[in-house]
Amino acid sequence: MVNIWDFANSSIVKLRTIEGNEYKGKVVCVDDAEEDEEVTEDSITIDVKGKYIGFNQSEIEIIEEVK
């Protein structure tokens, strides 16, 4: 499993989900599961062409910073 916290201060990331879908966007936030009782795992939200998309840590196969 990838460590999404490595990308909390990144500007732009590219990721591939375990289903094989690829996304590239600006990091909006990384959320800690311990801060929300209803959430079971950490997640990252990115802005993909004006649409915020959230990914649970277990849904991400590969993530990398785009410079």
Automatic annotation (TrEMBL):
<protein>
    <recommendedName>
        <fullName>LSM domain protein</fullName>
    </recommendedName>
</protein>
